[in-house]
Design brief:
Elements: E1 12-16, H1 22-33, H2 40-46, E2 52-59, E3 62-71, E4 76-83, H3 92-107, E5 111-117, H4 121-129, E6 133-142, E7 147-155
Parallel strand pairs: 4-5
Antiparallel strand pairs: 1-2, 2-3, 3-4, 5-7, 6-7
The chain binds coenzyme A.
Length: 161
């Protein structure tokens, strides 16, 4: 998929997420993840949680995407990535993911890990395009529906990523 009009991601501004963003995040979270969405309380706790780094993508002053990383002192874990449905396919997800990977490098992570639904084609394209490789399959990882997850890894110690 190519950018629809070339306007993104140049017009997108990345910034740290704040607790004040939770009401908007809450709406995005429900739009993007449906029954699997985090609760309002989980979102509020997560964005300020220990070792967490959350970034938002703004377009014209409105949050249209967000992503989060957890660094445990050794490895980094992608906690979430999401782009508002009406702005998908224009490079915002990749911009957010690149920001997470950049942060992982800055804090000295060896690898970046993540889980993704095996049927989530857009996310799989996003991650493989950024150099992530499949590690293994976790059975019935996602509820509801018992959907399997791929675990994926980006090795930051390789020179070419
Ligand atoms: C996954 C997601 C974050 C991608 O965001 P995005 O802003 O559309 O991503 P980008 O525009 O940077 O595109 C990244 C890749 O995904 C592909 N992609 C985006 N939308 C797609 C779609 N509907 N179908 C297939 N591929 C798609 C793009 O083509 C691109 O791949 P390419 O580099 O090979 O062309 C977005 O689809 C989303 O928010 N989905 C719902 C939440 C979710 O599933 N998050 C991931 C949880 S693990």
């Amino acid at each position: 998929m190519t950018p629809a009009d070339g306007a993104y991601p140049q017009d997108v501004v990345l910034r740290a997420l704040r607790v004040e963003d939770v009401p908007v995040l809450d709406v995005l979270e429900r739009e993007l993840f449906g029954p699997a969405a985090w609760s309002t309380q989980s979102l509020a706790e997560e964005i300020v949680g220990p070792g967490r780094w959350y970034v938002g993508a703004e377009l014209g002053g409105t949050l249209v995407g967000y992503a989060g990383l957890w660094f445990d002192g050794e490895d980094a874990q992608v906690m979430t990535v999401g782009t508002s449905e009406q702005h998908q396919g224009r490079g915002i997800g990749r911009l957010l993911l690149d920001a997470l990977v950049g942060r992982a490098r800055t804090v000295g992570a060896r690898v970046v890990l993540l889980e993704v639904r095996v049927d989530n084609e857009p996310a799989l394209r996003l991650y493989t395009g950024a150099g992530f490789e499949r590690l293994g399959r976790r059975r019935a990882y996602y509820q509801p529906g018992n959907v399997d997850a791929w675990t994926m890894r980006l090795d930051l110690q390789q020179a070419d990523v």
